[in-house]
Write a sequence for this structure.
């Protein structure tokens, strides 16, 4: 059986349009050329163009007004954190900014988890941490590490922390293969994260915050070295 193509023409067009928008070829606030001219320029049908427009509108880059046209949204002013995965894939420079936020949010989460975590939540953290050394490769270790941080966010009892954690991980998980440095050695990954979980487990909020800050800075340093 012949394998299906991995990308459709709509996928390719969406990527081209997104790149042109993020590179400034279609500036924020400007209207795109008329559909027929734009479709001819990209060598596609108007139906294909409409499908790509729909995806980019859903992503928050375009807005279409009937009888007026399709305009590029000012995503820097109006967009939300849900745009981060797309922006990181387009420009790896966003990763550093994601990590800066990750440090601040992660330290606060560890502190709150130590203050508020329940006994079952602390037991769950211990079990998830114990899974790290058993992960079979760097990707599996990284994903196991992510689950520990999701559990820390849940232990705060604050659902906004949970959503922020999801957002930050979603931002760089698509490029995680470039950020696997801290996770190539499962035992070392376990040793780095263990002080955070231990401090949360005993309810020491100050130590949990400090341990999280140390962990986040160290893993960030290793990941950015690999990215460079």
């Amino acid at each position: 059986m012949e394998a299906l193509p991995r990308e459709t023409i709509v996928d390719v067009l969406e990527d081209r349009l997104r790149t042109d928008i993020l590179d400034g070829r279609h500036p924020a606030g400007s209207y795109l050329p008329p559909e027929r001219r734009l479709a001819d320029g990209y060598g596609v049908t108007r139906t294909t163009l409409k499908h790509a427009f729909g995806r980019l509108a859903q992503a928050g880059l375009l807005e279409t007004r009937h009888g007026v046209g399709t305009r590029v949204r000012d995503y820097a002013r109006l967009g939300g954190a849900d745009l981060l995965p797309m922006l990181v894939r387009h420009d790896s420079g966003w990763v550093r900014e994601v990590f800066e936020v990750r440090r601040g949010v992660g330290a606060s989460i560890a502190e709150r988890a130590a203050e508020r975590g329940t006994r079952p939540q602390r037991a769950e953290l211990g079990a998830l941490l114990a899974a790290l050394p058993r992960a079979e490769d760097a990707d599996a270790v990284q994903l196991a590490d992510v689950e520990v941080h999701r559990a820390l966010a849940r232990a705060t009892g604050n659902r906004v922390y949970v959503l922020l954690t999801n957002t930050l991980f979603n931002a760089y998980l698509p490029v995680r293969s470039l950020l696997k440095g801290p996770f190539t050695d499962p035992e070392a990954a376990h040793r780095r994260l263990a002080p955070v979980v231990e401090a949360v487990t005993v309810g020491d909020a100050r130590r949990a915050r400090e341990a999280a800050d140390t962990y986040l800075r160290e893993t960030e340093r290793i990941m950015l070295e690999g990215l460079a």
Remarks:
- The chain has eleven helices and two strands.
- The beta strands are 62-65, 69-72.
- The domain at 9-72 is CATH 1.10.10.10 (Arc Repressor Mutant, subunit A).
